[in-house]
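re: that complex we talked abt at group meeting.

here r the seqs, copy pasted straight from the sheet so there may be weird spacing, ignore it
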Amino acid sequence: MGLTRRGGLKAALGTAFGGVINTALPGTAGAQSRAETLRQVMGGTINTLDATTPGATREAFGAGMAIYDRLASFGRKQADGVWTFDFDNIRGELADKIDRSADGRAFTFHLRQGATWHDGTPVTAADVKWSLDRAVSAKSLSAAQVATGSLTKPDQFRIAGDHAVEVMLDKPDRLALANLCTALSPMINSTLAKKHATADDPWAQAWLKENTAAGGAYMVESHRPGQQTILRRHDAWKGGADGKPSFFRRIIVQTVPEAATRANLLERGDADLSIDLQASDISALQARGKVKLVAIPQTNGFTGIVFNTRVAPFDNVKVRQAIAAALPYDDMYKAALFGRGRTLFGADWSEAPSSAFPQKLPLRTDLAQAKALLAEADMASGFSTTFAFAAGAAATAEPAAALIKEALAKIGIDVSIQKMPDAQMTTMAVERRLAFFIESGTAWLPAPDYFIRTYFSGDQRWNFSGYKNAELDSLVQAARFETDAAKYDAACRRMITIVAQEKPTLMLWQPNQDAVMAPNMEGFTYWFHRQVDYRDLRRA
Amino acid sequence: MAVFRSIGRRVGRRFVASLPALLGVVVFTFLLMRVLPGDPAAFFASGPNAGQEEIDELRRQLGLDRPIPEQLVRYLYDIATGHLGRSITTGQPVVRDLAERLPASLELSLCGLVLALALALPLGIIAALRPGSPIDHGVRFLCTLGVCVPTFVSGLLLIYAFYVLLGIAPDPTGRLDIFAAAPPDITGFLMIDFVLVGDLAGLRAAAAQLLLPAITMALFVLAPLARMTRASLMTVLGSDFIRTARSIGMTPWRVIMVYALRNALLPVLTIVGIVFSTMLGANVLVEKVFSWPGIGSYALDALVASDYAPVQGFVLLIAVLFVIVNLTIDILYGIADPRVSIE
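got the structure back, here u go
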């Protein structure tokens, strides 16, 4: 007989579970059975193997986490039966011990003895120094990211022995260590990378896009961008919390553009995991009960309605407050998100009760107040405006937009809805040519001051509303170096209060990350980068 | 020999004649992409702290910071030297992407076309021989259905029936089962490569993978082919030489297959050319539904992301293919009807 595909698969599965016959999958090495292979299907593409490449997709960040190690890693915690990353609990990854000086201005990373790169050569302090230098010097995504932790120049990094590297700061930045845990601070095998560096490209950025010089939990077996990437386990990897290699020997990450096809694959048991299915498919899959759904609110993200605070009429805080009082939050949450997430509206306070952010904000529907506020803004007769959203977000944005249009008509505001291609929407948002729109964001580092610094101050793209507030700006700059916990807490509460009162963006909700997986999969964790970390996963 | 030389000369002349059109296509696409309201640098500057600096850097890397005429000249120079730029979406040179994906699209479109012809010609002939009969109505119904149901609907339906419910089709992702070994890359056409290395199991697997998408495409183009066959054959059947052939007592089989069909084929060939070109460029939906790594879905992804180089490369490729397909059809004309010459 020919090797029929399904037959081959079943035989392999049978082998894995029964462990009697020793057949193997066609084209794979003997021991790599289906049970030890994870097949993830996704709509996106891993467009570079170096997550720091400008233009890297989110999927590339996820792959980078598995392929490269960082000096340190966030922990993970279990709450309400689901795992999420633990920002407040940082452990060593490539380092096995991290010393922090008393003044908080120096960290010493002691590298794990015996740690090796994928090619078997030992990890040295010089490699780490080169990687850190690259992060702050190369024209990549890293420089801007690690600068948020006050890491800006190569002379902050010093080799302090064969297996120790010291990182020095001018001021005790609260986020310096956290910045060494993200996908943009990978540790690179400098000996290998330097062989491929050129005069024009001293950091081997071109070569590292398609090749790796890494030491993480997985190595790249094959990479076909837009189709599939196959990872093989690095058996000598000891960077995990338990120091053991990951469970899955082989990871197949496949691009399957059609969401319905992804759902079919999962239901048939041919794929093991997908984190980007459509809400409608998810409820159907759940009803039929052949897959496991792990729904985790994206605790470091939000979806919000953005006002461009630099153009009329939204430069007027009364107008923003009026609209905030007119929106039907609960209906929007149900219609747009089918209630799949965590709400950020409906609180009742005037001073922020805690420094956690995002937290529930005082957004409530009150039409009478909305009309009064609009009158105070000298706009009792209303005005016309356009509400925009990206075609890629239409599944949730479209129902929300319809409800917004309907609700604002009641206070005399005439809204026309504009749906535009993603690239066009991004361009217009970056150029601040949109007045009123819906956007989503995630802060990799969910510290309240970082969140507010990223989304409500400065001129970078993520300050969607172009918001400027002198008090907030000075608080945000001071908070990052604040070492006194109580003062930091007070500053954060004040910033949250300002955002809640001034309403540059109406933060609506945190959508769930809906991970649909085979019933025997365990350990799925929600990470700051919103991708799968293959190192957490195992098959029961 | 002389015949081949004359064909060669004609082919050469046709290519030279098509150069201005290709140049026009290149320049037009180039300008069109830059007129579209979407800035690739802004779209891809997605870093956690993407600011103006990052956008400018990306723009510089893409060469978009230069004046448009200079960009155009550079682009034309690149094309002349065989470069089509680099895709940001996949991070690969466009030439490599297209070279990898074109065989996939061609394999799918050709199989779809062969399937469609194998169905459409007999159906069209039967319908023409018995106009107004229940068979004729049945064929018309089938064609209408094929045209009305969008390819992504028929594709998803086929997947649901044969993969999800019956479980007899392989999982509809790509050209080959993800766990199977791919043949060495000889021609890029998987089925041919499998035959070349003598791997019949592989050939079967690749054919199984191809079947559903090919049927989906065939259903969609069934109508123009079958309808054109019917109409053209009916016209020919009513002409004088058929009446003469019948009156001198030739067998109906000979009359229809040799005299009528050959004369009726010219318009069908024209339609085949058009249909094939359309299939190549417009099978995006089928490629999406079946995760087929073809050029259509590649270009669409690039377009959505305002990724200039792949879109421009795709349009150029399709234009070249169109020229080749038209030329092939013209040569086939000559074979079907010696009176026609492509001069």
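couple things i noticed - The CA atoms of residues 196 and 207 of chain A lie 6 Å apart. Chain A has three domains: 1-30, 32-274+518-539, 301-512.
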